[in-house]
Amino acid sequence: MNDFSIGTKCVQGGYRPKNGEPREVPIIQSTTFKYDTSEDMGKLFDLEASGYFYSRLQNPTADTVAQKICELEGGTAAMLTSSGMAANFLAVFNLCSAGDHLISSSSIYGGTFNLFAVTLKRMGIDVTFIAPDCSDEEFENAFRPETKLVFGETIANPALNVLDIERFANIAHAHGVPLIVDNTFPTPVHCRPFEFGADIVTHATTKYMDGHASAVGGAIVDSGKFDWTKYPEKFEGLCTPDESYHGITYTERFGLAGAYITKATAQLMRDLGVTPAPMSAYLLNLGLESLHVRMKKHSDNGLAVAKYLENNDKISWVNFPALPSSKDYELTQKYLKNGTCGVVSFGVKGGRAAAEKFMKQLKIIAIETHVADARACCLHPASSTHRQLSDEELVSAGVSPDLVRLSCGLEDAEDLINDIQQALDKI
Ligand SMILES: *Cc1c(COP(=O)(O)O)cnc(C)c1O
Fold first, then answer.
1. Phi, psi (5° rounding) for residue 44?
2. What is the pLDDT of residues 178-203, one digit of tens each?
């Protein structure tokens, strides 16, 4: 599919049925697979032959859909996981063990922040957070001999900062480590981080890729470009024999194109079992078939709503990366030329109480802990996800008490704007 453009890959990537085979990706709803001899199966266990034996490790439906996402991102290998959190955890844990360290942008999804700040620490992996716009010097000072990777989000959820991927990749590479980018918000339709030097990409497919709030899921894609074998002591797990897998050395057996994803599948899926259901992979594929059409509409709606809000005197501030007034507008021009996403954040004059009152009046925009759905939804973090925090604590977490996060769906922009207008009229 590499000769085709992104929309064609969305529709037809990953699956090329042969003569007489189903046109639509088949759901292989089977935990296990049958073999004629034990030798046949033994070869699979030794990773000498490729094939399926147990759906905790690999399933044909999930692999077909992973292959489509791989083609969309321009990678060499990919896998699906049971959730976006599982994707981020496996992506990092595939390179880090107790005693290791990673550097992350501080502007990332709250769940990932908690994984890094609390859960990885309990596992003995230390994390240094840096502001995405910190100086090169501050960035350089965060590196330690045991640093294994750098992590960031293309468009951060919910702060909506745009990551300077090229700068992050260059600094990571100068220190001999890869850059992992969570590309959930723009999707490969609007940004392909590998084209700017990122090495590994993750996704919460739960969001735009699925796009219909139907299945939680995640994905990891490898660019195949990071040369682990240049730093064999640092990436021991990829460059020395895995005794838990019959002494295989992943980089020798699978090359740079396949080592990272094969290790994550053979070791981490085997031991942690964060497996996607075949039915969820099928639903994800339905979403992917229209991703390019939907992303344009989400992004256009986001911009139309952001422009309307910017000119409304009941609104104190608006943050949307494609607004010329955004502090990240230049980065948006570089990394997100064709569009961004449908998520807009803004403040309602009158603070916390006004924001709550405004949201109560909305008719077609629903209050939900979700984004990136076909249906518009919104959230007031100060009274929901962050309600335990005081106003001062909210500000230091980057969530002001008046902040409303609005995810524009696929409705017509004028109806979203009219809904916001009538709700603002009542406060
Ligand atoms: C939602 C989200 C996640 C987590 O995904 P789940 O499928 O909910 O586990 C990770 N990263 C980003 C950017 C997200 O928006």
1. -65, -45
2. 999 999 999 999 999 999 999 999 99
CATH assignment of 292-425?
3.90.1150.10
Q: What is the pTM of this model?
A: 0.97
Compute the distance from residue 49 Cα to the ligand 1 centre, in Å.
34
Burial (CB count <10 Å: 0-12, 13-18, 19+), residue 145: exposed
Whether 398 is in the pocket of ligand 1, judged by its Cβ within 6 Å, is no
DSSP letters, 372-392, are: S-SS-EEE-GGGTTTTTS-HH
CA angle, residues 104, 171, 224, in degrees to nearest 5: 85
Q: Say how many Å lie between the CA of residue 41 and the centre of ligand 1.
A: 36
CATH 3.40.640.10 boundaries in the chain? 21-285
pLDDT tens digits along 336-395: 999 999 999 999 999 889 999 999 999 999 999 999 999 999 999 888 877 777 777 777
Pairing of strands 101-105, 77-81: unpaired
Residues of the chain with CATH 3.90.1150.10: 292-425
The architecture CATH gives domain 21-285: 3-Layer(aba) Sandwich (3.40)
Q: Is 218 in the pocket of ligand 1 (CB under 6 A)?
A: yes
CA contacts within 13 A on the Cβ side of 401? 12
The pLDDT tens digits of the residues spanning 395-419 come to: 766 678 889 999 999 999 999 999 9
